[in-house]
Amino acid sequence: MKNWYNYSIQDALSQLNSDEKSGLSSQEAQSRLEKYGKNELDQGKKKSLFAKFIDQFKDPMILILIAASIISAFVGEIEDTFIILAIVVINSVLSVYQEGKAEAAIEALQKMSAPHAKVIRDGKITEIESTKVVPGDIVILETGSIVPADIRIISSTNLKIDESSLTGESVPVEKYAEAIYDGEMEIGDRENIGHSSTIVTYGRGRGLVTSTGKETEIGKIASSLLAYDDEQTPLQKKLAGLSKSLGILVIVISAIVFAVGLLYKMDLLETLLISISLAVAAIPEGLPAIVTIVLSLGMGRMADKNAIVKKLLAVETLGTTTVICSDKTGTLTQNQMTVTKAYVNGQVIEVSGTGYEPVGNFSLEGSEVNPEDFEELKLLMGISTLVNDADLKEVESGYEMIGDPTEGALLTFSEKAGINQEDLNEKHPRLSEIPFDSARKMMTTFHENFVGQAYGSLTKGAPDIIISRSSKILLDGKEVDFTEDLKNQVLEMNKTFARSALRVLSYAYKKWDSLPEEADLNSDYVEKDMVFVGLTGMIDPARPEVKDAIKQCKTAGIVPIMITGDYLDTAYAIGEDLGIAESEDQAIMGRELNSMSPEEIREVVKTKRIFARVSPENKVQIVTALKENGAITAMTGDGVNDAPAIKKADIGIAMGITGTDVAKNTAEVILTDDNFATIVSAVEEGRIIYSNIKKFVSFLLSCNIGEVLVVFLAIIFKLPVPFTPKQLLWLNLVTDSFPAMALGVEPGEEDIMDQAPRKAGEPIVDKTARRIIAVQSIAITIATLVAFWFGLEHYGRDNLNGARTMAFVTLILAELLRSYTARSDKYTVWHLGIFSNMKLVVATVISFALMLAVLYVPVLADLFDTLPIHSDGWFVVIPCAFLPLVMGEISKVIANKKNK
Q1: Mean pLDDT (whole number) for 841-845
Q2: Which helix (H) or strand (E) covers residue 311, if one does?
Q3: Are 180 and 96 in contact (CB under 8 A)?
Q4: 26, 131, 317, 586: least surrounded by Cβ within 10 Å?
Q5: How far is 350 from 334, CA to CA, in rounded Å?
């Protein structure tokens, strides 16, 4: 692997057998295209629709259902077999459909990074598709161009390239063709290299293509992502654990019942059928479908809130998040430089507003002022606008800046005071210029009638340089001597601005009676004895809504961490302002991690909140260490440099507008509004979803365990089996499913974002859930067995369908009433209000109506072996059915008293 930044221009051209003036011939370019392949990223193998469908059958709960259907078919229960298989297929189709919808939304968001490129072929400049660029091509670079591949820059004139998507650094990097380096250089420090998918913001140049496709820096990152295996989400792990426990329970109970049947010398086939009945009773057949539906609804709600979730189970993972690692540039900040302070006439004027929209106010010592009242400020704005090659335009979506972000910020700054670039250029046309270069760190332009003289040279640049080249300073409208004391005051203010992580520029002018001759247009002659005007300080500002989002994260027990490629001072200033860090001890440079062991990094991430100048490898190290410490980690970002860490995190989040295709393809969640605050609402939605999943899992399990206990105890006490397999399937699929789905959309409790995140290892059936399940299943068992016993006495053992109907109806009503107490594990039904979840009211009414149909519609009654219940039966059924509800509410009151 060649480090092209170590090569001179001629050596690089020789190595790639290319010519700076004529480029490659069309024939040679075609030959190299066949050799190296298209200039595109390795996307990996896309899963077919069939493969996605088959993946749904890897869920342990689905496998248990398939096993139950096979056993049902083996013993002749063909109807049961078809019902169970239908559930499995519907669940799988729904999952694939929802994830397909998310993929379609993402494809709509994606844009090609560099659709076309200008290259020299056969000695002529021609435009080609960027996918057809090959090593050895000579690429033409202009302001606004997207670099199509990795290049060795072979000519540069004031060339600046925005590499924020790759390095995270918000300020464009100056590029120099003549630079040559010895040894290894970090990506952000290679001044003679241009990287694929970065953007030319200023100047012009040419580059020799050295690497294309997956061999580029962006390509290596994209390829490395394919090496990471997709990990199970926390919910997947917990549901798999629950499925395993249920599977063991089914086998153990079925074996015990089969053994008891043999011990009691029951008929072998009858004993096997009873064992299957128990298996059917133990498995909550509707659970996979309900989880899928609830997650799908959550997916829809998140999409409405600007968060597209690609994978169904990732919806819930957001709610488990304990750490959010965020890129700074474009995620916490706007990736739009903004002037926030100006220093003129010995005064600091604050400027409000963010981004390129020219809306904001000016204030002095906390009081709002009119910029019209400050002649020195107006002059400074005029200089910053005229010595400027950027273009600010109002478009449908807001304001668009073409050119260098720093210059764009200056145009916005001036527009806030009503100073328009087009108007100024018309009044004071540019006559000549001395372009910016990094050696002198200044740019000068000549204009007519701007500073009260026929001609004026206007200069902007680095404060220390311009201060040293100025002999006068503008104070109170007068040009006075720029004494050492005055210079020291300005230099001190420059330091104060810099300590606040502001990028500082200074401005000066010089009056001329006539334009200098062409031969005299040089820095030594023009840029001396100038009149100093003032300073501006600018920064890539935080998004205005982020500070509140960070505060809410902390309230919710979530640790926000900033990971950026920017400089430490800038990162800390933004981090401190947002509330991410409180002291400089919480900030660290990424290179410090390079010499640390994994154990040391695990200790570092416990206390550090800002990581600056990090490489993509550092980001992965940080995320890995957090996960090894037991944190459920979310990683947000928009750049290519974020992608490996996005992939490694428990939940990867990419920006939909500014995000690169690599980042979006890698993430599980895409924010369509690029708003960090959207993450917080998505986390809240995830918490509500998980809370509701716990509620309906608890509800379903208490019902299923109650059913198992009823059948098991009936056999132990030598009573007939209280239910047929069909009745149990009806209970599990119809009666329980409607209320369970309604519980899945239960409104979130008010304090859900004031609670600490649950522990990563916490089972879905925790201590509280186990208490609730125990109380409810015992109550359901007692109520059902009492009703069954009454039915046996009332109808007689010869008419077993009558007694089974009593047990069947009691169990249905008990479970429907039980659903109301399942809405919360701490608030009573009366506190919540019976009608505060109308979906549950509708669900229980539907289930009750279906139960009546099974009792009183002859066709259904024959299918499910039921008999109509008369008034004397209802007098037994109704009180028994209320027992679980009453016991559940009493247990809440007792538990709440203990917890006080």
Answers
A1: 93
A2: none
A3: no
A4: 26
A5: 19
Which amino acid makes up residue 512? W
- pLDDT for the residue numbered 116: 82
Query: How far apart are the C-alpha atoms of 489 and 348, rounded to whole Å?
Result: 12
* C-alpha–C-alpha distance, residues 469 and 466, integer Å: 5
The number of residues making up the chain comes to: 900
pLDDT of residue 59: 67
pLDDT of residue 885 exceeding 60, the answer is yes
Question: Would the pTM of this model clear 0.70, i.e. be above it?
Answer: no
Catalytic residue chosen out of the listed positions 59, 80, 162, 327:
327
Which of 191-195, 759-763, 839-843 has the lowest average pLDDT? 759-763
Averaged pLDDT, 115-119? 84
DSSP code of residue 406? H
What CA–CA distance (Å, rounded) separates 669 from 771? 35
DSSP one-letter string for 339-362:
EEEEEETTEEEEE---TTS----E
What mean pLDDT is predicted for residues 723-740? 79
Residue 6, burial from CB neighbour count under 10 angstroms (0-12, 13-18, 19+): middle
- Contacts of 734 by beta carbon, 8 Å cutoff, 6+ apart: 847, 850
How confident is the model at residue 94, as a pLDDT? 61
Residue reference for tokens 């459909």:
97
Both tokens of 258, joined, read: 């089969």
* Mean pLDDT of the 393-405 span: 83
DSSP E strands, 396-450: 398-402, 430-437, 442-448
**Share above pLDDT 90 across residues of the chain, in percent, rounded to a whole number:** 40
Q: How far apart are CA 900 and CA 893, in angstroms?
A: 11
* Tokens 């997947």 belong to residue: 236
What value does the mean pLDDT of the chain take?
85
Q: How far is CA 643 from CA 655, 663, 667, in A?
A: 11, 5, 8
Q: Any bridge partners for residue 140, and if so which?
A: 206
Residue 112 has pLDDT above 50, yes or no: no
* Sequence letter at residue 829: V
Q: Are 694 and 335 a contacting pair, CB within 8 Å?
A: no
Q: What angle do CA 825, 828, 834 make, to 5 degrees?
A: 115
> Mind listing the pLDDT tens digit for each residue in 461-470?
999 999 999 9
Tell me which H or E stretch contains 112.
none
* DSSP structure string for 461-517: E-HHHHHHTEEEEEETTEEEE--HHHHHHHHHHHHHHHHTT-EEEEEEEEEESSPPP
The Cα 527–Cα 222 span in angstroms is 47
Say whether 59 is catalytic. Answer: no
pLDDT at 44 over 70: no
